[in-house]
Amino acid sequence: MYDEDIIIDVDWLRDDMRDEYLGAYFGGGFEGALSESLDIDRATPEQLVEMAKRQGIDLRRYKV
Fold first, then answer.
1. Using 50, 70 and 90 to split pLDDT, how confident is the model at 28?
2. Nearest to 40 by CA among 49, 30, 31, 28
3. Rounded mean pLDDT, 25-46
4. Helix/strand/coil (H, E, C) string of 1-64?
5. Which long-range contacts (C-beta less than 8 Å, at least 24 apart) are formed by 55-59?
């Protein structure tokens, strides 16, 4: 998906992903989103990037 190495703000990515999942949980009642938000909090930076890629998040948005 990406052909370049970039440095991203992992904390910003983590906050956005957590907000997205918690919004899905509280707004739509998607119970799986709550457990996903806990996974986001425990994920290493590498795991977080992989999760974001699977979701199709454009990591260039978090470039520092």
1. low
2. 49
3. 70
4. CCCCCCCECHHHHHHHHHHHHHHHHHHHCCCHHHHHHHHHHHCCHHHHHHHHHHCCCCHHHHEC
5. 55/17, 57/13, 57/17, 59/2, 59/6, 59/8, 59/13
What dihedral angle (degrees, nearest 10) is formed by the CA atoms of 7, 12, 15, 18?
A: -30
Let me know: does 53 contact 19? Beta carbons within 8 Å: no
Amino acid found at 53: K
Is the per-residue pLDDT at 26 higher than 70? no
Mean pLDDT of 10-25: 83
